[in-house]
Amino acid sequence: MRNPRRPPGRTVRQRFTALYGVLFLLSAVGLLAITNIVSLGSRVSSFGGNPPAGQPTLAAAQEHIALLQSRLSEMEAVQSRQLLIGSAVALAVMAVVSILLGRVVAGRVLRPLRTITAAARRISADNLHERLAVAGPADEVKDLADTIDGLLERLEGSFAAQRRFVANASHELRTPLATMRASLDVAVAKPEPVPAQTVALADRLRTELDQVDRLLEGFLVLARTQHGDLSDRATISLGRVVSTALATRADDIAGRSLTVHDGDVHDGAWTRGSRTLVSRMVENVIDNAIVHNHDGGWIRVAATADGATARLVVETGGRVLDQEQLALLAQPFQRLGADRTGSDTGSGLGLSIVAAVATAHGGGLDLRARPEGGLRVTVSLPSAAAQAGVPA
After folding, report:
1. One GO molecular function term (predicted)?
2. Which of 157, 230, 304, 381 could pair covalently with 274 via S-S, beta carbons 3.0-4.6 A apart?
3. Which of 374, 252, 380, 232 is nearest to 315 (CA)?
4. What pLDDT is recorded for position 189?
5. What is the pLDDT at residue 52?
6. So what's the pLDDT on residue 156?
7. pLDDT along the chain (392 residues), means of 10
8. Among candidates 329, 341, 176, 328, which has minimal Cα distance to 258?
9. Residue 162 to residues 159, 217, 220: CA-CA distances in angstroms?
10. Does residue 162 sit in the same domain as residue 203?
């Protein structure tokens, strides 16, 4: 960190003052030089005519004086016009020269700021340990770079503390949940007859504990994603992840008599990122399509690659939805409610996790209401088609 009481040095303000002062002086000198050259050229002229031979008479002398005065007036008018034209030309020339010189000088003066901007753009949550470390005189630019370095240092410490909190919360919060489940199992498994009300209460508590567990897991995944924890990077086949998610949920799909159209799931859609988070993202999209659907409905799934982008598209049928409300579903705890499908299940974290995972991998989530009814979910990720030969 810089010392706020650093000795006064050559500041950027002083350098700008000196540079622009010199440029202004040079422009003024050039303008005067061009004007004087034009003025001297206009003065080289001959009055012409010779005085009368012999002893001039008074009338002849007066006539010659009048002629000289007339010619002098003409020369002064011509000289004024030439001086005006020369001044205009000099002004135009020096204006162009000044703009070019100013652009060059401004580029050299602002070069450290461009360096700082490029370095700040390069530094992200994954490499907060990097610093600008701008060298140079102790001026305002150096102060700015040192201030940004201090900010990056504090951000790095904050991110590290948050990651430690997420890791500790994963253990500390799940332990009491497991203890409560075990206590319920012990209470219900006693040899003596257990009242029916107790069994029903235990079942309800287990259901609520499962919901809390899922909510906690969603919190942890969302926090991990937003903090950029992509430690298990790999090249992943998006099509294979989709096929695995559909196969795992075959019973849920069959239980609701849903028809799945997965003919557009191709193995050529590759991306690179965290295997765990990408799998969770795909599972959340599939789960959303299953849960928020109606019995006997349909799901259309596509995993394709188009140039530099790999896309996962999941569509479902249903009633016509409001596009403005859909824009809120990527935020935590936002749901359309039971009027969407007759179900109010879920924690409201599913699509927010999808959005966070996609953003962490350099992609995005797009939610669109289908004109004929239902929802179209599109997840875009950077493609890794060049590494398609690497097994996922």
Report:
1. phosphorelay sensor kinase activity
2. 230
3. 374
4. 82
5. 52
6. 80
7. 48 69 74 68 50 64 80 76 75 76 76 81 72 75 84 82 73 81 83 81 85 76 68 85 93 93 84 87 92 90 89 90 78 58 57 86 89 91 64 44
8. 341
9. 5, 16, 11
10. no
**Burial 254-269, CB ≥16 within 10 A → b, else e:** eeeebebeeeebeeeb
- Cβ contact 361:278 at 8 Å: yes
CA distances from 73 to 66, 69, 78, 79, 80 (A): 11, 6, 9, 10, 11
258 closest CA partner among 246, 268, 276: 246
**100 alpha carbon, distance to own chain's centre:** 33
Q: Which domain holds residue 192?
A: 173-226
> So what's the pLDDT on residue 68?
78
Output the six-digit token pair for 357: 């995972």
Q: Please tell me whether residue 121 adopts helix, strand or coil conformation.
A: helix
User: For position 392, what pLDDT does the model report?
Assistant: 43
Residue 70 has what pLDDT?
A: 81
Do 376 and 218 form a contact (C-beta atoms < 8 A)?
A: no
Rounded to the nearest 5°, which phi and psi values hold at 231? -70, -30
CA dihedral over 102, 103, 104, 109, signed as positive or negative: positive
Continuous segment of H or E residues that includes residue 298: strand 298-306
Q: Would you give the end-to-end CA distance of the chain in angstroms?
A: 45
Query: In the chain, how many domains are there?
Result: 3
Q: Which of 241, 225, 231, 259 is nearest to 332 (CA)?
A: 225
Supply 201's token pair.
């209460």
Alpha carbons 116 and 111: distance in angstroms, whole number? 9
The DSSP secondary structure of 249-281, one letter per residue, reads THHHHHHTT-EEEEEEE-TT-EEEEEHHHHHHH
Which stretches within the chain are classed as H helix? 12-43, 58-122, 140-172, 174-188, 196-226, 238-248, 250-255, 275-291, 323-326, 338-341, 350-360
- Is residue 96, in this structure, part of any structural domain at all? yes
Output the 3-class SS for 305-366: EECCEEEEEEEECCCCCCHHHHCCCCCCCCCCCHHHHCCCCCCCCHHHHHHHHHHHCCCEEE
